[in-house]
Design a protein that fits this description.
It is a single chain. With 311 residues, the protein is mostly helical. It has a single domain, classed as MetI-like fold (Orthogonal Bundle). The protein has helices at residues 2-11, 32-40, 44-67, 102-135, 139-152, 157-168, 172-180, 183-198, 202-209, 214-222, 227-251, 262-268, 277-305.
Length: 311
């Protein structure tokens, strides 16, 4: 028996009690944004569109810095050797009636169109999200804002933009103001509905009962949960504003006559659709690539940011 007891003592030893060991969570570390990126990059189509979008953005904002392109420049109009050259290694997108490179024109126009879309989207999203979040948590503000929304929403947005563009005149910032002045209201109403859906959930009621200020509850408890919803709205707004700018420029409204944009190029070369189709279809193709890539990347990112996809 003594030998057995000695063997047992040799096989076992006392372990010191560690009071902090019970506090340690023995699970893999979780990062929300790392999970979002993993989900996003698992979509091959989204990766392709992201590469395309980055390439378009880089060319649009870098190439015009070196091309020296001017939309109203007609200095080569008498040089017939440069007129109406089809796409080639020398002229990648061809040339127009003035001997101007369509390659330079397209990327200068894309820079303007993308800039207008991004700035207008940022303005409407920031104002719409903040106002919508407060709107959805205050019954007094809700009564006032609903009346304003009911009046403004019954007027077509495009009509408002056209009227304001004529009123304030042509110009880059005037067009952005015309597109943003009422567009944020639709975003605010959309966020208001989303906030009302989750504001009365248990954790928000508990937070409110404990005396958490309303603004703190909005920005800490509610808006982080709506990230995917906000990204979805941004992915819809970016192509939408590009479409507005293109349509208005096609009508000759909004931008100054010396400012190039994809809409102005499409309008300018519509008459060449049958004789020199590359002048019309190349700007249309670039516009389509910009809109589709922005939408697909934004929509995929919104799906990846949805917390319900991380369960």
């Amino acid at each position: 028996m003594e030998n057995v007891n000695k063997d047992v003592q040799n096989d076992f030893s006392f372990v010191q009690v560690n009071s902090l060991a019970s506090e340690k969570i023995d699970t893999p570390k979780y990062s929300y944004w790392r999970s979002v990126m993993r989900k996003f990059f698992s979509n091959k189509v989204a990766i392709l569109m992201l590469i395309l979008m980055i390439a378009i953005l880089l060319i649009s904002f870098i190439q015009p810095m070196f091309s020296g392109y001017e939309f109203m420049d007609v200095k080569d109009i008498n040089d017939f050797s440069k007129r109406y050259n089809p796409p080639s290694l020398k002229y990648w997108f061809g040339t127009d009636a003035n001997g101007m490179s369509l390659f330079d024109a397209v990327w200068a126009g894309a820079k303007t169109s993308i800039s207008i879309s991004v700035i207008a989207t940022l303005i409407t999203t920031v104002i719409g999200v903040v106002v919508g979040a407060i709107w959805g948590t205050s019954k007094k503000i809700d009564r006032v804002m609903l009346e304003i929304y009911n009046v403004v929403s019954n007027v077509p947005t495009l009509l408002i933009v056209i009227v304001l563009s004529y009123t304030f005149g042509s110009g880059f910032w005037n067009l952005i103001f015309a597109m943003s002045v009422t567009s944020w209201l639709g975003v605010a109403y959309f966020i208001r509905v989303q906030v009302m859906i989750i504001r009365d959930r248990e954790y928000n009621l508990a937070s409110k009962t404990l005396g958490t200020p309303t603004l703190r509850m909005i920005f800490r408890n509610i808006l982080p949960y709506l990230i995917s919803v906000i990204v979805t709205d941004v992915s819809r707004a970016l192509p939408s504003f590009i479409s507005y700018e293109t349509f208005l420029s096609f009508l000759g409204v909004g931008l100054s006559s010396d400012v190039p944009s994809l809409g102005r190029l499409i309008s300018k070369y519509t008459s060449n659709m049958s004789n020199y189709p590359y002048l019309f279809w190349i700007p249309v193709a670039v516009l389509a690539l910009v809109s589709v890539s922005l939408y697909i990347v934004g929509q995929t990112l919104a799906d990846a940011a949805d917390p319900r996809t991380h369960l």
